[in-house]
Amino acid sequence: MSDGLVEVGPVTEFEDGDHAIVEVGRAEVGVVRADGEFYALRNQCPHDGGPVCKGTVQRELLGEFTGTGERVEQYYGEECIISCPWHGWSFELETGAHIGDERIQLPMYDVVVEDGTVYVDTGE
Q: Contact at 8 Å (CB) between 119 and 111?
């Protein structure tokens, strides 16, 4: 394998919602599978340093305000999110953006799947 790729493991070991943690340089990176896709994010929640990539993966819960005195209509969107197990801060898996404030971001890494093996691309 070429330089710049950190091996994570075989694709067959990942079901949707599964994660693996690898070291990329000095950073701990979580690789998560959701809807058949792989995402790699820094495994450090910006809120309190929690292991965000060990959290729950689910569809984003959305709501629509319909009027004063009415219940908020809730439904699940198409985007998958991951929630930090320490305090529940949630981030979009595709972008690393916090669901409530896009100015808060988890650093993202590219994922490469080659010959049935998952790798994180360090960009080197």
A: yes
